[in-house]
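The authors assume throughout that readers already know how a fold can be written as discrete tokens. For illustration, here is how one protein appears when written out as sequence plus structure tokens.
>
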Amino acid sequence: MDKQPAGLFDLFLTFLTIGAISFGGGIMGYIREYTVRRRNWITEEEFLVALTLSQTVPGLFAINLSVIIGDEKRGAIGAFLAVLGMLLPGTILLLTLGSGYLYYSDNPQVKSFLMGVAAAAVAFIFKVMLEVGLTQFLRFRSLVFVLITFIAVGILHFPLIVVLLSIAPLAIWFCNQSE
């Protein structure tokens, strides 16, 4: 299937929608759904490359991913509009709800609601991780580096930047040797 073009308004509106309906870490799933599956702007492989890059450079990965996709589709203006669309709903909502949260933060119903939202977000992140990461889990050489990284960061608590700078060159070299 050929990749589809993106108009500037369509790019802005798509990322505005993503920014308005996604919560927490689940945003990666929405970006993938809208840019790969629904809009066919980028391929699954391009999404994984962009996701990897967006997670290894400083900044919020969802914003980095928006910049990469927006730039790919429409250059610097596309990157700007994708980021603006992504940030606008959350900014408006946060400014609106933030003032009320201080007043209602001790309310048991508010606390229960936030715990429910947090549980749903974790479930969604897990679902997306399984979908996106499945290809990595099915290839032995990739799985080895996934496990090494998990152990180093998740269990031994090494700084992520140290792990990335140590493991990435080794993974690149090893994967190039295996091909």
Q: What stands out?
A: The two ends are 26 Å apart (CA to CA). The mean pLDDT is 87. Residues 8-107 form one domain. The chain has seven helices and no strands.
